[in-house]
């Protein structure tokens, strides 16, 4: 089995730049505007969208350092994660290119081949050709994809389109951050976490658009609470989350009890805490689970999506209540 021991195990991290720091860094920056720009920088959506003819062209990029020791699985996870931004907008990926940083004097190129092979396998499942890419010599391995997709402009899923009094649906369980962190520190492998992270959000996106949903985002590095906060802020609504209804990988609950909480998760909670109210029986551990920094997480959808659990609802006003 091909391994990245020393990078994922005790090394790599898929966490994004902390949300507060990132927002401060890009404050005041504006993208190129134009009548054909459907989704730009304004609300930090999952992908950019530009109208070309009667089609919305979607563009996104995502890459990170290893979250698992197995090179092939890391490639699969990174590809599913990059493709997820297209699905989160209600789109269909049509082409991808690889983005690779590789320590060629430290890790054999055969391992890089396995990473690329894993990415190709998931992209093939998505019917998305991988054509070309870019690589650099890098002290730490990094892999991901830039992905282009298409969507019906009338059916775009956006994070600024939520309305009050609608169900909140989550299409994958939480807990990959906790289990990835446990894997890094102990070497334990959790097949359910790998299965979750490599599962495409294609079917969930199709079900959401078929149901007439207009607002969604995917749950990744900022955790459920962080991405929900961004959606509520952009849409000028609030939300209520029923923590007992949130699906969680069972092994992640034990990882939480055992203290495998990443620094990124704690920063997520610190960022969103001023916007939270919680019921009297909601503990800090409950909030840390809801803020767990996910890799290749599910879609958070404003609306009911058949086959997926409802975890709360939107409300008029602002803020997030956890009960």
From TrEMBL:
Pfam families on file: AIRS (PF00586), AIRS_C (PF02769)
Enzyme class, broadest EC rank: transferase
Domain PurM-like N-terminal: 44-151
GO terms assigned for molecular function: ATP binding; magnesium ion binding; selenide, water dikinase activity
EC number: 2.7.9.3
Catalytic activity: hydrogenselenide + ATP + H2O = selenophosphate + AMP + phosphate + 2 H(+)
Catalytic residues identified in the record: 13
Top-level division of the source organism's lineage: Bacteria
GO biological process: selenocysteine biosynthetic process
Record-listed ATP binding positions: 16, 43-45, 62, 85, 133-135
Cofactor note: Binds 1 Mg(2+) ion per monomer.
Recorded GO CC terms: cytoplasm
Feature type site, description Important for catalytic activity: 16
Function field: Synthesizes selenophosphate from selenide and ATP.
HAMAP family found in the cross-reference section: SelD (MF_00625)
NCBIfam families recorded: PRK00943.1, selD
Assembly with partners or alone: Homodimer.
PANTHER family assigned: INACTIVE SELENIDE, WATER DIKINASE-LIKE PROTEIN-RELATED, SELENIDE, WATER DIKINASE
Protein name (record): Selenide, water dikinase
Organism: Mycobacterium asiaticum
Lineage: Bacteria, Bacillati, Actinomycetota, Actinomycetes, Mycobacteriales
Gene: selD
